[in-house]
Amino acid sequence: MIRGRFRSWSFRRAQPLLCLAAMTGLFAVCGPSAADPAGSTKIVVKEFMFSPTPLTVKAGSTVTWTNMDDEPHTAVSDTGMFKSGGMDTNESFSFKFDKPGTYHYTCSIHPRMVGTIIVQ
Hints:
Elements: H1 2-30, E1 40-46, E2 49-51, E3 55-57, E4 61-67, E5 76-77, E6 92-97, E7 101-106, E8 114-119
Parallel strand pairs: 1-4, 3-8
Antiparallel strand pairs: 1-2, 4-6, 5-7, 7-8
């Protein structure tokens, strides 16, 4: 009986600490990483989508697309400004955006996959 009370008391008492630890971990995963070079932005290709889109970056930023799907994908500008080759799982493609503007792109293998980058 003492043992059962101890478990309930411990869990109730630890619950706020567990919530805080979970929230801290969430922010650590979602927040900017000190390891990322300044001006670098990442786009994840997963579940036949580009994420995030639209993406807003500053002029001079390098955007990196990384394919996390089991299918190959590409990132191809509508204007021909950039064109990746086929990216297999865990492969990446990077492009540096020097000039402000709005850039639309698609996956040439799966044309319904579209994205937009806004360069300020």
